[in-house]
Amino acid sequence: MTLRVVRFNFTILLALGSAGFLGTYMAGRLLPRGLQWLLWGLPAALALLTFGLLMGRNTWSVAILMTAWGTVNSAIPVAWSAWLAKRISDEPESDGGLMVAAIQLSIMAGAALGGWLL
Q: Whole-structure pTM over 0.85, yes or no?
């Protein structure tokens, strides 16, 4: 690999990490304005960004979409945690267990669908 490619990859990874920080911060700021909007809007935005990544033809457009994807993806657990904390306030252990189960189910379903498509 050339030094130029390494710098470009490093820049994309740095942007993705920074986007994760920004998404977590922004989700915390947007929670008081409407939790339901976050619970429905973030997954919909993530789906659109994922579709855009699949259709991306240009390296720069994919890099920008990937950064936006990182922002949205890091905001989702904040919204889920806030929602579960409101709904299951008397048993916090159940909160964590439900979140882990939902994430594992999503990973399994995505892997099954991806394997079927492949």
A: no
